[in-house]
Every structure is written in C-alpha cells, then in structure tokens.
Amino acid sequence: MFIRRTQTRSTATGESYVTYRLVRSERRAGKVRQRTLLNLGRHFPVAQAHWSALCARIEQRLSGQAALFDEEGKGLPLAVERQAERIAARLLAEQGGTPAPADAGGVPGGGGDVQSVDVDSLSLVRPRSVGVEQLALWALRQAGLEEQLQALGLTGPQRAAALGLIVARMAAPGSERATYQWLARRSGLGELLEVDFEAMSPMQLYRTSDILLRHRAALEGHLFARVSDLFALAPTITLYDLTNTYFEGEAPVNPAARHGHSKERRSDCPLLTLALVLDACGFVRRSRVFAGNAAEAQTLQGYAHRPRGARRRACGHGPRGGHRGQPRLAGRAGLPLSGGQRERRRAVDFKEAITLDNAGGQAVELLKVPSADGQEVRLYCRSEGRVRKEQAIAGRLMDRFEAGLDKLATGLSRRGTTKRIDKLWERIGRLKEKSRGLGQHYHIEVIAGDSGERARAIHWQRLPVKGSLVTEPGVYCLRSNETGWDEKTMWRTYIMLTDLEAVFRSLKSELGLRPIFHHKEERAEGHLFITVLAYQFVQLIRHCLAAHGICERWSTLRDTLAGQCRVTATFNRGDGRTLHVRKATRAEPDQARIYQALGADPAPGGVQKTIV
C-alpha cells in the first residue's frame, strides 16, 4: 500500500490539477497491477515524509494491531494518526458487508453469521455519536429539506454541509468552527449521510451558511407549509416577539451591531436583534434580523406593513409589557394585536368580573374595560396564585428594606459607622433603588443631633400606597385593539405568549443563539438563521412526541439520546485474518421509547462486517 501523486484533468472545465490516491499493488494473471483503493483528494494534508509511516499505520489498523509506535519506538504525529484512523474507517466502510466464507473460520450450522474469533483480541475503536443525529435526520426528512435544497440548486457537497450545520446546531450548539470539529471527530452523522466531513474544508460550512441565508424566504415558506400539512395546522393566531444576542468583540464591520438593552444583561457588548413570527403551535412562519438597538414598536410597524405570507385570519400577539402605542399602531395597519401592559392602576372593582379556570386548575377573574374612544380594550386579571406570588415577593423585598434601615439605625450607636446625615440619605437611596419600588411605601425620618451634621436616630413607618402591588397584589392588565373579542378569547390569546417565551428559551439555552463570534453582517445573520432552522426541526420532533405522551424539553431528549454511539469491534480470526464489525449500540429503554414513538430506526447506520 502506498500513496501516489497523480496529475489529472477536470472533464467539466479542462483544468489540470494534482490529486492523491491510496494504491495497492496486486498480482493478477501473473502480472502486477496497481489498484486505487481510495481517492484522497486534491488537498491531502500529510507531508510526503510521513507517507510510508501512514500507510503502515493504516495496514496495522486494518489488521487489528493497536500499536501506537513505529519500529523505532517514536510516536507518529497526531495529524498522521488521525488520517490513518479516518482512511482505515473509509476503507472498511467501502468494503462493508463482506460475508465470511464457511471454510475460512466460519462455523456452519450455527444460525446467522457465526465465526470463530479470539475473544481476547477484541478492541473497540472509533466511537461516534448517532442518537441525536438519527432523530434530527428523521425530522429533516419529514420536512423534505433535502429535496427543497436540491430544488434550490445546492450541489451534493453543499447539501451535506447544510445538513451538517443544522444537525450540529441541534445536537452540539456552537460556532461554525466548533461545528466542524464536532462533525469531524465526535459525530457519526457522516456515516448516516455517507459523507466524509473530515475531508471537507471548514470554509465549506461558512459558504453554505451564506447560501442558506440567501434562500431564507424560500426555506421558511417551504418548512412552514410542510409542518402545516403534517399537523393540519389552522394558523388563525400569529405570535410576534423579539430577542437579542450579543457579539464577542466589537464587530466594527457589521452596521447592525449596536449597543442597546440586552435581555441577557450584556449591554457592554454590541447586540443583534432577532424577530420571529410564529403560529399558535410555536412553528416559525418567518424571521428577520434587526439592529441591536431596534425598538419593539419600530419592528412591529415593519411587520405590520410587510405581512408577507400572512394568512387572512392571522393576527399579531404583542410582547408582554409592550409599548403603549402598539395596539393603536397595529390597528392603523389593519393588524389585530394583543399583549401585556404594565400599568400603575391596580385598584379595580372585580364585582362584575367573570371567572375562568386556567391550565393549572386555578380560578382567574377577568374584567373587560373598553377605552373611552372605543378603539382599545383592557382586560384586568387576578388569580389567587398570582396574589400569593406577589405577596411573597413584596414581603421578601420589604423585609430586606427594613433590615437595611435597621442596620443603619443601630449603627448610629457604634463607633466607626456612618453618622453623617447626607451619607445616610445616600445609603437610604440605595436601599430604595434595590427595593424595586417598594421604598415608596415608607415614611423615613433622619433625626439630627446637636451638631446638626450627624444623626442621632432614624425613624420609619410603613404606609402602603393605595392601588399598588402591596395593597392590590395579583392584578395585571392586557390590552388589545380587537374590541370584538370577549374575555375568554383575550385571555387564551395572551396565554399563548408563554409558548413564545419558551421558544426563545429554547433558542438561547438549547440551540446556541448566544453569543455570536462572527463580525461580518451576513455571517452573523447566517448564524441566527441556522439556529432558527434547527429550532423548527426541534419543534417538529417535540410536537410529534407530545402526541405520544413524551413532553420533555429538547435538552432532556438530547441528553437521553447522546449515549447511543456507533463503534467498530475488531477480532482476530482463527485463520489469521481480522474481522471488523461496525454497528450502533443497542438502544436503551428511554431511547427505544423515542424511536418507537416516531417510527425511526433504533439501530442507526445498520451493520457493516469486513474481513481483512
């Protein structure tokens, strides 16, 4: 076995180039012939000085020898070892399925493929994860993604890279650089797709990300239409909300990288805003990227005037605590909107309210109040669970506030503590700042001493303000410009916002939306779009599993399936040859339950048997 450098020419372009091939010399009909075992490609990374050692290492791996040193006792470079493992695995895969002849160590009559092997020679090599990959490919094929990519004109390598990017974001979220490392060294996705990701250039992933971004509208339209058909969705409600992610670095060449309010409290970094339009089941209809300092009211106006793909009965659902002008803004654009509204008013008479049971079985009081001009409607809500929650929060913060005042007061009688009146008021101000507005319920006096500059006592009294969280806990307000809705419809629509918030939690914590390591504008948007695509397939899987009573989060499902791997078992046979068997580990009960619910193959990749 040796490596040959060959000059060849492209039949398509006529370009002359050099390629590298793994060749074996064989004697056929009394003549020595050279047979190409594997095309190693144009960019073979191993230096010519190591070719001989590489070929010897490949032979050792094929024959089951586990030695890691050459004859001189010197270890091979790590890059050469990796290439030897990769090439040996490819050779075994291409020769897979070779049956064992009965006269060469096989045991006839034993049922199945029974062979005589040396058990002590067993070695297990090249473990690669396939559980999450198998589930992800099942979802991609349910949605017809491969066919859609082909219809959009992507070549075979580009389609493979696109699938690799999306599946990696589902299984091991990270940057495109981390994705390449995962695909090449940890995942068995290449085996399931019959693609050698180790031979793929990392730049191929970046370029494919750019291509996917250029086809964003077509891909989003295809996927939403597909899931609508699969689940017979009737999208009468549209959910709309924003989140943002931050950059690692300043991203000076990206005009959309702006400083603003970070929902991750990373306002020290430039941000990028992602807007999603979803249906009531949480599937993405379309997405859009805005500058990091974009305001919700501005983006909502852009959505209202660009209802591309929106169905006639669709309506918007605004963000919780939204902008006060949003319902009127949406009304002028012909877009119904509902959302939460932070209001100081809590003193509401619930005598004429209706009572509705929520999903937790608790009663919720609902009072509908139209605006004076009849263009908007407010729905005031109160529930016992919310009352207890806000009472506990208020009690904890007020106890903390009073403990701070007590500490300042007792310090007046000790040496080395703050006694100057101006400094005491500064500390009281900081206590109020930390009390989340509950400091307004206290009347505080600092009593001056004889000098007039130092305090001798601090007195305070709790005086709850009427119509506040302390006196009216558990009351909150919803606003809408859909004045024809009744209380029940407004409430049910608002509850859907919980699902939308779960979407963003999944994007951020489970699918690697944050942070962004790219500086170029299209690469940053491509990173976000791949995350959106990954979420779409995660939602498809979870929606199918929920129908079978499996309602775990994606992170839980991913951890459950992560333990299943493909591994090669190597044995020495009695006739001196080596048997290689590559297959997936048996699905454990929790894994088998998921596969059974979806009708997926519990043994990804099948079985490959090779005798060398």
UniProtKB/TrEMBL annotation:
The molecule here is called Transposase
Q: Specify where the region named Disordered lies, as residue ranges.
A: 302-343
Feature: compositional bias, Basic residues: 305-326
Q: Which species is listed as the source?
A: Nitrococcus mobilis Nb-231
